[in-house]
Amino acid sequence: MSKISLEVNGQPLQREVAPRTHLGDFLRDDVRLTGTHLGCEHGVCGACTVLVDGQPVRSCITFAVACDGTRVTTVEGYDDDPIMMRLRPAFSRHHALQCGFCTPGMLATARDIVLRLPDADEHRVRIELSGNLCRCTGYMGIVAAVMSVLKEIRDEAPPVIEALRKAAREGRATVPVAAKAEAFAGFAVAAQPGLAATTAGAAPATGAVSAAGVASAAGAARPAKTAPGTQIEGRFDVPIAADRVWAFMIDLPAVAACLPGATVTSMEGDKVKGKVAVKFGPMSAAFNGAARLERDDAARSAMLRGAGQDTLSQSRANGDIGYRLEALSPESTRVHIDMRYSLQGPLAQFSRSGLVKDFVGRMIAQFGRNVTARLQAPAGNGEAPLPAAGINPVRMLLSLAWARISNLFGARR
Q1: Which one is the CATH code of 2-169: 3.40.605.10, 3.10.20.30, 3.40.50.1820, 3.30.420.10?
Q2: Domains of the chain: which residue ranges?
């Protein structure tokens, strides 16, 4: 593994990556900026085009380690760019997108044309766009959108764009970025450089889940910007002292034993390999992967970062599970959970459904009960600890369905 430091959409980022990892995979899987689309993965179609130090590159054939020390801009990072402020509405106005798969790369290339070729005619624009393939539009709308922006700028001569063009001619092309997003304040080690914390997750469904019930972390500081992926927040209370709960929560095999479907196959230091089996109605998957635990013992907070792949569907999952302990009393502890995940592949269609979020929320509650059961029945005098209570998927699904039906009819009254 190689450690790289770069800036993505205006925010510093440090990661360890394999030397063979391409920039496109790094952006999608590690940074979770899935606006960068991977098509041919041979540098031909142009869908994966991003900006590196202001220059368009094919992220599918550019190694992430080669971008150490650079500034990378993806389609998510153009909010304050004066050229993109004109290109985006022009693409909409001229119907320059249909399925949208090629659009992120098209926009990056179109921006380069506007920046580098202020006097380009239609023939030149078509030549410049020839490296970006589109299967939907026939290119007429795309060319018209670029030509309209070129004309607008020629007519108005905005100083900010002229300054960008001058910088490009001098070899110092930059992309204006918004003020850096506030770091995630919920967990001491959860602040990922280069990523703002997600606040888009839905709160779990309410129901009879006892003292270990799931609730959205009330009063938690929330940044203004959101990060890609799906977030689920929750918490549960354990009638055990915080120091003892913390010692348990950093014991990965013990924690895995409380999560049905999770199996640890090997562990070395804070790195673990294992398997997570998931069954949700007709959906069944078994993700084999690895995870790394980052922890702050003084703050009693940690982040488990993992990735895996389902052998059957070939779907890939990336996830961060952050947890922070709050001492409610000398003999009572609250565990705050912040789960952020993303799915690529056939199973991605299930990842954002409200029912799945409710299901995972209730699993967090059940996980809390399992942790409590383990801690209240420790091994001693040669006796094995009592088994943690399992999860009954059928009962949980029926409970969720009944809760939704009740809420629906209750809302109509």
Answers
A1: 3.10.20.30
A2: 2-169, 230-412
Asked whether the beta carbons of 60 and 54 are under 8 A apart, the reply is: no
Q: In what order do the strands lie in the sheet with 316-329?
A: 230-238, 332-344, 316-329, 301-310, 283-296, 271-280, 262-268
Residues 6+ apart with CB under 8 A from 21: 63, 64, 65
d(CA 282, CA 279): 7
Token pair of 234 as six digits: 């929750």
Q: What fold characterizes domain 230-412?
A: Alpha-D-Glucose-1,6-Bisphosphate; Chain A, domain 4 (3.30.530)
Q: Which residue has the tokens 């790369």?
A: 105
Q: Exposure pattern of 254-267 as b/e (b: 16+ CB <10 Å)?
A: bbbbbbbbbebeeb
Say how far apart CA 360 and CA 385 lie, in whole Å.
Answer: 26
What pLDDT was estimated at residue 215? 33
Neighbours of 79 (CB within 10 A): 14
Cβ atoms of residues 253 and 348 within 8 Å:
no
Residue 371 has which token pair?
A: 């942790």
Decide whether 2-169 matches 230-412 in CATH topology.
Answer: no
Query: Is residue 292 packed enough to be buried (19+ CB in 10 Å), middle (13-18) or exposed (0-12)?
Result: middle
Burial 122-147 (b: 16+ CB within 10 A, else e): eeebeebbeebbbeebebebbbbbbb
DSSP code string of 52-69: ETTEEEETTSSBGGGGTT
**Cα 165 to Cα 335: distance, rounded to the nearest angstrom:** 52
H or E stretch covering 288: strand 283-296
Beta-carbon count within 10 A of 69 CB:
10
Q: What is the mean pLDDT of each run of 10 residues along the chain (413 residues)?
A: 92 91 93 92 91 91 92 91 93 91 94 91 92 91 95 90 84 60 32 31 32 32 42 86 91 81 81 77 73 89 85 74 91 88 61 58 80 75 43 49 53 48
**CA torsion, points 80, 84, 86, 89, in degrees to nearest 10?**
-100
The tally of CA atoms less than 13 A away on the side-chain side of residue 113 is 29
Q: What is the pTM assigned to this prediction?
A: 0.49
What three-state secondary structure class fits 353? coil
